[in-house]
Amino acid sequence: NNFKAVLETIRDMMNTECVVPAWLHDIFLGYGDPGEAHYSKMPDSIETIDFNDTFLDAEHLLENFLGMEIKCNAPQEKQVKPFKIKFADKGAGLEVIPYTLPNPGPYPYNKPKENTVKFTPTQIEAIKAGCNPGLTMVVGPPGTGKTDVAVQIINNIYHNFPSQRTLIVTHSNQALNQLFQKIIHLDIDERHLLRLGHGEEGLGTDKDFSKYGRVNYILAHRLELLAEVGRLQKSLGVHGDVTYTCETAGYFNLYQVKSRWEDFQSRLQKKGASVVGNAASDVADFFPFNVYFSNAPQPLFKGDSYPEDLDIAEGCYRHIQKIFDQLEEFRAFELMRSGLDRANYLLVKEAKIIAMTCTHAALTRRNLVKLGFRYDNILMEESAQILEIETFIPLLLQEPEDGYNRLKRVILIGDHHQLPPVIKNMAFQKYSNMEQSLFTRFIRLGVPATRPDVEMEQPEQDSNRLEDAEESTDKNEESTDNNKESLDKNEESSKSLDEVEISNETVGEEKDREEEKTSEHVEETNEGAGIPKMSEDVEMEEKDASDEDDFGPSIEMMKS
């Protein structure tokens, strides 16, 4: 029973200074312009948005902006994803800027995960609104891809604003787990993911995304990274124990790794400035980490062109620096000794995407505020099923900074045509209008909302559907065979029943004959004794009377 804890949270909020973001204040109170918090009217709206892997290709991008003037200065062969889009002030035209992601490294696991959903124009508009600051409302029935839109918004915010933190809130653990499972499969580092609450056991994954599960993952991953640093040290021929802590590994990076990379760059520049110029083989000859990357797919450098090999070398160095960057983040977990301190540090500093239910937010608000919890964006799924007070509490899980709320984005996703919040007290439900959620109230106030349509079907999904159809046809054939067998059995059983009926009929005829013989015998004895024979009319009257006695009550009951 969480009622007492939630009531304490409500009382604490009544006795403390609660500041709603200035751009949401008037809409929350129900007056002013309903579209005031829309991204198109926000003063700090983003002009150029990096859509990352939202679009599958250039053709998909053109399908989503039909009727608009699209300008792209890149040649045809370079018009490939990912894309940045620069929108005009009045929304009449846009400029597409394709770019190339930096080489992440030579190993297959360095390749980032990509989106496979082909979004529709209305879904792209919802994603664009979610990436911009302000209030975003996404309305739609089940099957319109609201969850996919929410996941892509989170992914784009994570890559466009790496320093910002996003809070995900839903009404039920099931919806939160479904949303979280889709986030896991995107290009988001799992050390930045955190799932709070008791419903974490329902996640369909072997990994533990609770606070202590993430702490254990970080400590285990730290040992793996230090082992990689030891292998790098051995490949460079450096002596000493540099893998003792994250701090010693940082000094090793500063004095040994970076110095060798700078020497590599200077040698290439000298060779390029000379009369001979850089050859394709120079990168492989001067590269200082050839031994370390001997376990990568070979050949490491193809030797076809100098720019291509230089890009591979930069990707290798980027892979090495990512190891040391993560160790620098994990250094705080070395200094802290208790599991509670590590879990709190993970919640307040390390995690970038934190997921919880609205009930958990109401239960733990006092503790979160005490720890100094901070977040910049909030996304609520199932908003139409959440009470207004339960929607209000997650907006204020942090103390205001200099009298201002630091929230930049509020994204509400739901369907007000489905079931409202459950209120069992009729007085609260009807007369207090408590069953009206904040999401429904905003819709009735006329706040602009995006209504996604049915998402485009994917070729992979089509093949899966064909396979499912084939399996269903096979199952149907099996069921028809089973039905035929059952029909045959029924026919046999009906035949046996007919035989039983025939035998019962013969038995009944024999009984009738015996009864006739006994009645004739009784009549003969009565005649011999001088008892008069009963007339047929009397027999019929007695028979009718007996029938009425037997069936009279049942007939009356049927009539009633």
Brief descriptors of the model:
globular; alpha/beta
Could you explain how this protein is built, in words?
The chain is of the alpha/beta class and 560 residues long. Helix content is 53%, strand content 8%. The protein contains 17 helices and 10 strands. It has helices spanning 3-14, 22-29, 58-64, 121-131, 146-160, 173-184, 211-236, 246-273, 282-286, 306-335, 339-350, 358-371, 388-395, 426-431, 438-445, 459-529, 536-559, and strands at 48-50, 69-71, 83-87, 93-98, 134-139, 166-170, 193-195, 353-357, 377-380, 409-414. The strands form 2 sheets. The chain has a 6-stranded parallel β-sheet with strand order 5-10-9-6-8-7, sandwiched between helices. A 4-stranded mixed β-sheet has the order 1-3-4-2. Strand 3 (83-87) and strand 4 form a beta hairpin. Helix 7 (211-236) crosses helix 10 (306-335). The two termini are 50 Å apart.
Q: What is the share of helical residues?
A: 40-55%
- Indicate the structural class: alpha/beta
Q: Give the biggest sheet.
A: 6 strands, parallel
Low-confidence stretches: 456-470, 493-507, 521-555
Computed over alpha carbons, the radius of gyration is: 38 Å
Estimate what percentage of residues fall within beta strands: 5-15%
How far apart, in Å, are the first and last alpha carbons?
50 Å
N-to-C SSE string, H for helix and E for strand: HHEHEEEHEHEHEHHHHHEHEHEHHHH
Number of H/I helices: 17
Query: Strands of the biggest beta sheet: in what spatial order?
Result: 5-10-9-6-8-7
Overall geometry comes to globular
* Strand elements, count: 10
> Mean pLDDT score, rounded?
82
